[in-house]
């Protein structure tokens, strides 16, 4: 069909280049293309990007760039908070078939899309969790890595993630243009929650990409009792605020 995910072979070529760049398993390209097709063609996909080539760049390439961080490559259990359209969690699940990946989303329409996406891409190591991070007891201290892409202010993401990580685990947060005040608040929140900022790295997931940063924090001690706070408190009364 005109404008479909595979139009002109451009999407297939870009996905093939991604699999080569990141050294992905042979079947990953087929799975990524199946997910990509759903993102582009499903009218209920929670994304405004419908152009096939832009979807490869802004969705797949931007997600897979997380593989440049060793904690993600080495994770046995990973959870993606506020997974939305499955980004970055589902591409990472496809790239890391030995990693157990939980896609956590509180909105029912989005979880329905996530279920379709997991099925379409045959990502048998991924599961969808319909929950808020603050009300998910099964997730407490259960994960090596927490990912989040454009979910909330960075200090809030830190609060959501900290209780879910094992000591020694890592938060990797996808962010756009850097904001020193936001980062300072996140550092103060991290100090209260047992996390420690490690690195903020500018990324180049595709040619011409601008203002793409990944923030890495490590969990160095147990998160204090009292966290997670009840739903809404992290946003209403964020830690680290001056």
Describe this structure as you would to a colleague.
The longest helix has 14 residues, at 28-41. This protein has helices at 10-22, 28-41, 52-64, 70-74, 89-95, 108-121, 154-161, 180-193, 233-236; strands at residues 77-81, 100-105, 126-130, 143-149, 165-175, 195-202, 213-219. It has a 7-stranded mixed beta sheet, with helices on both faces. The chain has one domain (7-236): Vaccinia Virus protein VP39 (Rossmann fold), CATH 3.40.50. The chain contains 9 helices and 7 strands; from the N terminus they run H-H-H-H-E-H-E-H-E-E-H-E-H-E-E-H. It is an alpha/beta fold. The model is unreliable at 1-8 (pLDDT under 50). The chain is globular and about 50 Å long. The protein starts with 9 loop residues before the first helix and ends in a 6-residue tail after the last helix. Helix 2 (28-41) crosses helix 3 and helix 2 runs antiparallel to helix 6.
